[in-house]
Write a structure and sequence with these properties.
A hairpin with a 2-residue loop joins β10 and β11. With about 200 residues, this protein is mainly β. It is built from 1 helix and 14 strands; from the N terminus they run αββββββββββββββ. The strands form 3 sheets. The chain has a 6-stranded antiparallel sheet, with no helix packed on it. Strands 2-3-8-13-10-11 form a 6-stranded antiparallel sheet, with no helix packed on it. About 15% of the residues have low confidence. The chain binds calcium ion.
Amino acid sequence: MHTDLLKVLFVSVLLAVGTLGCGTLPSEKDVAPAAPSEGRNIVQNGSFELGPQVRVEETLNVGDEIPGWFAVGGPVDLTGSALWRPTDGYQCIDLEERRGRGGIRQILNTTSGSKYRLVFDCAGNPDGPPKMKRLVVIAGDQEAEFNLNIEGKSRWEVGWVSKSLDFKAKSSHTTLEFRSANESGLCYGPLVDNVRVYAIN
Ligand SMILES: [Ca+2]
């Protein structure tokens, strides 16, 4: 009797552990659909977590660098999680600063003629106008604009969305750039985080 009871308990524990284990596996909908399963991410510091550690915000002026990136066209803000929550880690980029709109650029090491997929998360700074943020992305031979509506959004829920863009590399060095195309360009820009690029067939 005693042995049988122990067996029952042992099997029950195994079943419980098995159930818990299955529960922690990611479901299909948790996996980003735009990211290819094979290939290595070739973006350096795509989550903006390396370099300065920022609680609220720190301005990057034109030419200023953080690992992998430099500011182009105008100033941007590296923002911390005390301002709003990024999609990955503790920091992201606001493509505008008080003095105007700006951009960030990274030069990727690529294979000429190869195809790549850019995947990133974006939202709009919810603190001020315009209501519709205009984000321009340049990657290799492609340029695309993404419109981000901040209506109903707040610092607590900026409304991150995941976007992707396929492009072909024209040489061994490919420009990847994110910039604000807001006409007002006064502090409240598009937000970008979790930037990745994978080779695709
Ligand atoms: Ca981040």
